[in-house]
């Protein structure tokens, strides 16, 4: 295998300080050699935590450094597309935190710049690498729930002071881009099919579009109901209902996937608690979760997958096309919220277009 990949980190804000700096400086096969951020305070703090790295105010100077082989982009959402395109034009491998862009036109520009470059273009849907969701996918493939009936999900965050750019949709804020994209991608990942219809409602309380309710229909007819909010509590939960039982998983609280048999739903609470404790001790997630940055081991797993793909010259998922397809669902949701009608997505299987949305009567 090739030597360590020399990586530049573009954007040293909150998520980079919480996750990426610590992960990248310890990641096997990777060497963090450069940092870029317009804010001198953040730049100094990042340089202090990773001594010896070159630091730049302008990320274009970082991209011009020939020793930088790959970049991890953690900028405000509205800057994602331009930074990714600039990196691709310099021949750098790119790990881009979601979203791919804030609108589909810019997202198509990223796809156009990436296509046929031969470099790795990976989108930061890191929850795909969470052992809980991988187990959920395995159980679905094994048919443990029988025929699937419906899916319900919640992803919400406790209220906190938001930077100015996160308070307005035009600059990349809102619950759809911040939270819903993760669950939309997980739905595509777990069930291995696309969303074909969307109905959505949005609400603005503390910031623009900070809460959303989505009703999705997948290609095979499976219905998904989701709630997202930046103004509620810390919760990230999936519940799958099938003819043979119910599956539940909470990313924050679960140490293993819980399946309830329809025939034993009436059993005593103590018995359920005992089974949960035993499942936690047997689960593969316990120690990873306790030891991982911010208690979320999928950050490291996703970045390791990116570095491995760069070193081995192999294709990787989720890629920029996955980022586009999930963003297309968000665009359809926003169209539905404006019109009050169901929106159908068509053509998502086309490699060059990424699909179109069409309003239909609810």
How would you describe the overall organization of this protein?
The protein is an alpha/beta fold and 362 residues long. The protein has 2 domains: 141 residues, NAD(P)-binding Rossmann-like Domain (Rossmann fold); 168 residues, Dihydrodipicolinate Reductase, domain 2 (2-Layer Sandwich), CATH 3.30.360.10. It is 37% helix and 24% strand. It has 11 helices and 15 strands. The strands form 2 sheets. The chain has a 9-stranded mixed β-sheet with strand order 13-12-11-7-10-9-8-14-15. Strands 3-2-1-4-5-6 form a 6-stranded parallel β-sheet, sandwiched between helices. It is globular, with a radius of gyration of 21 Å.
Blueprint of the fold:
Layout: E1 5-10, H1 14-26, E2 30-36, H2 40-49, E3 54-56, H3 59-63, E4 70-73, H4 80-89, E5 93-96, H5 104-114, E6 121-123, H6 131-142, E7 148-156, H7 175-191, E8 195-203, E9 211-218, E10 223-229, E11 235-242, E12 245-250, E13 258-260, H8 269-282, H9 286-291, H10 298-312, H11 320-339, E14 342-346, E15 356-360
Parallel strand pairs: 1-2, 1-4, 2-3, 4-5, 5-6, 7-10
Antiparallel strand pairs: 7-11, 8-9, 8-14, 9-10, 11-12, 12-13, 14-15
